[in-house]
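Troubleshooting: if your tokenizer reports a length mismatch, compare your output against this known-good record of 392 residues.
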Amino acid sequence: MRYMTAGESHGPEEVAIIEGIPAGLTITAEDINEQLARRQHGYGRGQRQVIETDTVTIMGGVRHQVTLGSPIALNVHNDDHNHWSKIMDPNIPATAENSLRKVMRPRPGHADLVGGMKYRHQDDLRNVLERSSARETVMRVAVGAVAKKLLAALDIDVHGFVANIGPVQSDLTQLTKYHNLAELREVTESFATRSLTADDDKAMQAVIDQTKRNRDTVGGTVQVMATGVPAGLGSYVSADEKLDAKIARAIVGINAFKGVEFGGGFDNATKFGSQVMDEIYWSAERGFYRGANNLGGFEGGMTTGEMIVVRGVVKPIPTLYQPMQSVDIDTHQDHRASTERSDTTAVTAAAVIAEAMVAIELAKAVLDKFDTDSLPRLQEQVAAYREEIKNF
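Known-good structure output:
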């Protein structure tokens, strides 16, 4: 499985093409739109979420709501493009009239300056920010929605929620209350901040409100969990085949993510081996299993069969309504950085995007290991493999 996205933040369309999805998977626009709506909703999002309602059009690879095995083409229209049609028009040369809203004062923490240097966009840094914008993640969520449907057909579930926003931490001890991710999903999706409890939600909203009054932005941490993943996905034989490494790359590849950890993560560095390693047990019903999950479902770059637990650190959004110190790229004079319409926080959306990226990498790993032509054949092979692993 592989995919590619294209499109600019204020361009007419965002598009994606996915290769490698087996024939026979039922997928509808509504399945994808449900995930796109989750990305748009969440406390702290900005005005653009009011302007646009992201909906997908399936352009190829699906017939009568069933995948054909051919490349799947997805399209999401940018409603906001109506206000930018001249500025973003790809079919006419630049003029004074259609070159308004130039960006000449790069924002600290954004791709503006370095991207301008790399691609020689000396006349207008908008050429950088239009693609480096997190708007592109709408298509990663769309691709993730397809991946999640595939995983669900194999009894694999994936869910992301917010672990903290600013100084407010979700009460992670509450996770032990839930028997499965469906129960957890019902709770976290009921809160505007995607936190674990009503008290967490209230406290996070208060932090976001105060941050907005301060004309500032705030970051946080998201957690993604996956259940039903069979042991042995990924490989120890080469560094680039380690599945946890692939997931780490996918998470840090999301806009504004600056760190990733699995299981106990960085806290494991303060402990001793006897406190960290997941002891091994066996039963006739389960086969081999672990007595704990401090390593987040991975050993040697391979899944252990335990729940996958991944956390990603999201920095505050670099667009501030009280701009920071910058320099004009034309005059080289000190100025305050440019401002663009922005969110106070995108952590609530980041949980959905991280969930999508974990789903994509898990789907890739499954499709790397088994036959990818037909979903029924894939299901047969996965079921046989699970039985083989259980009887090892």
